[in-house]
Fold this sequence. Notes:
Layout: E1 9-10, E2 19-23, E3 47-48, E4 51-52, E5 57-58, E6 71-89, E7 100-106, H1 114-119, E8 123-130, E9 136-140, E10 146-155, E11 159-160, E12 162-169, H2 173-176, E13 182-183, E14 192-196, E15 220-221, E16 231-249, E17 260-266, E18 280-287, E19 293-296, E20 306-314, E21 318-319, E22 321-328
Antiparallel strand pairs: 1-12, 2-6, 3-4, 5-11, 6-9, 6-10, 6-12, 7-8, 7-10, 13-22, 14-16, 15-21, 16-19, 16-20, 16-22, 17-18, 17-20
Amino acid sequence: MSAAFVDLVDLASERLGGAVVAANDEFFAPKEGLIKAASPVWREGEYTERGKWMDGWETRRRRDLGPEAHDWCIVRLGTRGIVRGVDVHTAFFTGNYPESCAIDVCDLAGIPGADVLLQTPWHEILGRTPLTGDAHNLLVIDKAPAATHVRLRIYPDGGVARLRVHGDVVADWGRLRQQGDVDLGAVEHGGTVVACSDMFYGSRHNLIMPGDATHMGDGWETKRRRGPGHDWTVVRLGAEGTIRRVDVDTRHFKGNAPGACSLDVARLRDGEPLDAAEWRELLTRTPLQPHARHAFEEELGDVGDVTHARLNIYPDGGIARLRLFGRPR
């Protein structure tokens, strides 16, 4: 996959609370498979009473094949955001994938039911676009409005293994500011892990995901460093603010936690590249313990408002979660 948007947050992720809430048909494979976190798999020779078992969402063959005949599925995003691109993954759908697809969005408060969603006006952000079978169909989207729900339309019918909806979180900072200290780096608050030195075993994006890590693969882990230096990762905060408490969680990393960590911070203007950052020390190099949650508050320096934080680990290893609590500006 080469499209730049795939490095953005998957707004529809189950880990963020995304859910498939309605579909007009799911005869061969249930709608819930569309956003499963795991990669799609093939089970040779496995059949259900309705046909071949498929990992994803699959509708029956349509017989009313007019030019606008299509099936649809509605996904409630885990967090409100602006869609920048979608991956319509048709893995293992070779003779039964849709010919094309389109994407619509809507922006609704609360948790509306399917009856409301079926009556609400939708805004098309991707016109009807051809699809390829057994492939990642990476589709760039421009100028989409903020949305809470996405509707995938497939023409005329068929199966899609996974739908990934990549974009930028739109956090409600008016409400969050009333809560006092919040996690400025959390993905659900618009935080993004923008760079790292290495992520051989575990993705850097895991660092700021909601909840505690469930196992070692649910964190950020680098390969074993054999030369000088150390590993690092950079988080762009969801909002500029002053970091007042830091949690560095090494739980599940028992024989491969870093020996120590430090934190640097910087304040960048909108559009400034990361290379322009003038890093200041927030937390000096401090020992870490394996399989433990470390909280730092009195140890933090007074550096004022910042937009980015760089976690340095010495010399390498794995971190489950990083929490950057503070007061938004």
